[in-house]
Design brief:
Blueprint (H helix, E strand, L loop, with lengths): L2 H25 L11 H17 L5 H19 L12 H19 L10 H13 L20 H13 L3 H29 L5 H13 L5 H10 L2 H12 L4 H7 L23 H7 L4 H4 L1 H16 L5 H22 L4 H14 L10 H7 L5 H26 L1 H7 L4 E4 L6 H22 L1 H6 L1 H17 L3 H19 L5 H15 L3 E4 L7 H27 L10 H14 L2 H13 L11 H6 L1 H11 L6 E3 L11 H4 L12 H5 L1 H16 L2 H10 L2 E6 L1 H7 L10 E7 L2 E6 L7
Parallel strand pairs: 3-4
Antiparallel strand pairs: 1-2, 4-6, 5-6
Helix pairs in contact: 1-2, 1-3, 1-4, 1-7, 2-3, 2-6, 4-7, 5-6, 6-7, 7-8, 7-14, 7-25, 8-25, 9-10, 10-11, 14-15, 14-16, 15-18, 16-18, 16-24, 20-23, 20-25, 22-23, 23-24, 24-25, 32-33
Length: about 750
């Protein structure tokens, strides 16, 4: 294990935390921990946003220093506000970060490989490597030379900045950054859950630890069901298991009826047919440095800022306006740049927060408009006015977010359309994926709705008895499951003052979970709504983890708004949830460390190349040592297998790579390049020279994949082409364009 690098990166993270803490304390002044869990994503987000703009002129150390200068200036400005940071009282938050960081370091140390299968590691590492080669932004697409990356690369940019700052090789930085994003996610969740719980006079550490558990260790209920069914007598367990399995994705179905010894870490992420339903522990165990993971700490940062707004008294209008229209737009734009899938979630959460905050959103408008708004006579008019005003504010945040990352939207963001009415999810898989959270939401809402339920028990029972079966039998299981909770949470937030931001987070997750039942993003990456559910459900998991943690902590602290006699039931519920959602992680970790070589742990993501692809390892290392961004021609290959490794592992742009490029640059453009590469490897000398000139190719790669696909000849027969490297199974030719002859 590279302990020196681990210590260096930890020191850098903690230094950024300390540097950003005054700024966090200014923004989160009302939090018991002064926003300590948000300091790191706040500081690193500001660093990256500044570096992004400067990077369009000059990337590298210039961008790093510019980001540090602005961050330092913001911190200095915050210190002029006479902020007193209680460092000793804040120590629990960095300890949570360090623990989470080291947890992932151990996991990746046993299996550090940046491998092509089972995820997007080749894509993620390729973006990181090409960023490190880029003199300016946006970076060139390493699988589509001469074209910019058409992808949200904000998280990779942050990783590149830390890589430059620490002087770390990318093959190590990949895993160290992965651990850092996890640490930020867990510590931000710990801080936000604690802050919300503290407002109810509930232990912030208790709620924070629940949040750390639900976000970083818990899983969906598939593995718990597998253990439960296995423990039952066969006469009961077998038919029950088969009944459940009949509604699940085939991968998940085979595990429900299998004994625990046949556990697979992969299958619980494929519960709903036709979709991917990852949760954070699975994602970090699998080890992609992917956008849907890297955006999560910043999603919680946005939620934290919105909670500051939520709890701010109406009389502090000026400060709240500055917060909403000052801090949120650049953060929303940055989040879109890290993971565009999170942009709508931030805007939706902003809308809900503004709509349900005690202070009316009309107070953010000019005085004359606010005065007119207060003259609304009916409850319905007032409610509609609140919703419309909140929506108007969210649109302002949207516009500001677009402006803050305008170059991304104009040149880098990919264009996709919206599809409607996909195949919807059945009830059983919804319960398997979301059941642990729903088991907290239902008793929490019931506990607070007791007075209303006593008054309207008959009417409520009739409505639910008619609505739920009708929606379910009508093929709308998501509506049957989520809409009653959505309606209950909405009404209780209006009728009672003993619910708060935890319920807003619940509503946000319910809204996202409902939307993917009716709309999806059309793309070539995967059929139907597979990717939509995949990316949206990660956000649902994170938001619901915070909501459920606060709710569970409040249920355990029964005696205020919740009857004391509920406490025993809450303890049983907490124990059942912790046990049932822990089986997966315990089994996965046991298998991970049994399969891994724990006696020679390393964070070198490319060590496996020498072990499993030794015939190409030397050639890839030789290419990696080339400076700049010379263009490479290699055989394109299928996704998720050892193909286009030379470009992905070095960041040297290739003429064309994995089929992912169909999504980003279009089907026709991708096919044209495939044709050109085939023409080069199999064509006449004149055609070969024409292709070399067309794509400004410097290096020609001929390895096992190229020989299998094309059986090419000796390119050194071309004038201006010479052998630059020969070793193992690979020959690399270098092209001198001044000497090329047609």
């Amino acid at each position: 294990m590279e302990f020196g690098l681990v210590a260096l990166w930890l020191a850098v993270y903690l230094a950024f935390w300390a540097l950003s803490m005054p700024l966090a304390a200014l923004l989160f002044a009302g939090f018991d921990d002064q926003g300590a869990g948000f300091a790191l994503p706040l500081g690193l987000g500001l660093l990256t946003l500044v570096a992004y703009w400067v990077g369009h002129l000059a990337f590298g150390w210039v961008a790093v220093l510019a980001g540090l200068l602005v961050l330092g200036g913001a911190t200095a400005l915050a210190l002029t506000r006479d902020i007193e940071i209680r460092w000793r009282d804040r120590i629990d938050v960095p300890l949570v970060f360090v623990g989470a960081f080291l947890f992932i370091i151990l996991i990746r140390g046993a299996d550090p490989g940046i491998i092509p299968g089972g995820g997007e590691k080749f894509l993620d590492f390729g973006i990181l490597k090409v960023l490190l080669r880029s003199p300016t932004l946006p970076p060139e697409d390493f699988w589509f030379a001469d074209a910019p990356v058409r992808y949200y690369f904000g998280g990779h940019l942050l990783t590149a900045l830390l890589t430059i700052l620490t002087g770390t090789e990318a093959r190590f930085a990949y895993n160290l950054a992965l651990a850092g994003f996890f640490g930020m996610l867990i510590s931000a969740g710990y801080s936000l859950a604690g802050a919300i719980a503290a407002g109810f006079a509930v232990s912030r550490r208790k709620a924070g630890l629940f949040a750390a558990f639900f976000i970083g260790f818990a899983s969906n209920l598939l593995t718990g069901l597998q253990v439960f069914i296995w423990a039952l007598p066969d006469a009961i367990g077998v038919p029950l298991g088969r009944a459940i399995a009949a509604n699940l994705n085939d991968l998940a179905a085979e595990k429900v009826v299998a004994p625990p010894r046949e556990f697979s870490y992969w299958h619980p992420s494929r519960v709903i047919p036709g979709t991917i339903n990852e949760f954070p522990f699975f994602s970090w165990l699998n080890g992609d440095l992917h956008a849907h993971m890297m955006s999560t700490p910043f999603l919680l940062l946005a939620a934290g800022l919105l909670f500051v707004y939520f709890r701010t008294p109406e009389r502090e209008v000026t400060r709240r306006r500055l917060l909403v229209f000052g801090a949120l737009p650049p953060l929303a734009g940055f989040i879109a740049f890290v993971n565009t899938w999170s942009f709508p979630a931030v805007l939706g959460l902003a809308w809900l927060t503004l709509a349900f905050a005690p202070a009316s959103p009309t107070t953010l408008f000019p005085r004359q408009l606010a005065t007119r708004a207060r003259r609304a006579e009916s409850w319905l008019t007032t409610e509609l006015l609140r919703l419309a005003s909140a929506l108007a504010c969210a649109i302002v945040i949207l516009a500001g977010g677009l402006l803050w990352t305008l170059p991304f939207w104009l040149g880098t963001a990919s264009r996709r359309s919206i599809g409607l009415f996909p195949e919807r999810t059945a009830l059983v898989p919804l319960l398997v994926v979301h059941g642990a959270f729903l088991a907290v939401f239902v008793p929490y809402l019931v506990a607070h709705a007791r007075p209303e339920l006593k008054k309207h028990a008959a009417q409520t029972g009739v409505v639910l008895a008619l609505f739920i079966p009708t929606a379910w039998l009508g093929g709308l299981a998501g509506v049957a499951l989520f809409c009653p909770l959505l309606a209950a949470g909405w009404l209780l937030l209006r009728l009672r003052d003993d619910l708060g931001y935890e319920t807003v987070l619940m509503l946000a997750g319910l809204g996202l979970a409902l939307i993917v039942e009716f709309a999806f993003v059309r793309e070539n990456a995967a059929p139907g709504r597979l990717n939509t559910v995949f990316k949206v459900y990660m956000q649902v998991w994170v938001l619901w983890s915070i909501a459920a943690s606060v709710m569970l902590a409040r249920l355990l602290n029964a005696g205020q708004a919740i009857p004391t006699n509920w406490r025993t039931g809450a303890r049983v519920l907490a124990a059942l949830l912790v046990v049932s959602t822990s089986f997966y992680s315990v089994f996965a970790l046991a298998g991970h460390f049994n399969d891994g070589a724990t006696d020679d742990m390393t964070l070198d993501g490319l060590q496996y190349v020498s072990n499993y692809h030794g015939g190409e390892a030397g050639a890839i290392h030789w290419l990696d040592d080339r400076e700049g961004r010379p263009h490479l021609i290699e055989a394109p290959g299928g996704a998720y297998r050892w193909a286009n490794a030379p470009s992905a592992l070095t960041g040297i742009p290739s003429v064309v790579g994995w089929p992912h490029e169909r999504i980003y640059h279009g089907e026709d453009a991708y096919k044209d390049r495939i044709t050109d590469v085939t023409k080069f490897y199999t064509g006449t000398p004149d055609e070969q020279v024409a292709m070399l000139e067309k794509y400004d190719v410097r290096y020609i790669y001929v390895g096992p994949h190229e020989r299998d696909a094309y059986d090419p000849g000796d390119f050194s027969q071309l004038a201006g082409v010479t052998v630059a490297y020969e070793g193992g199974d690979v020959t690399i030719y270098e092209v001198n364009h001044d000497q090329l002859e047609t």
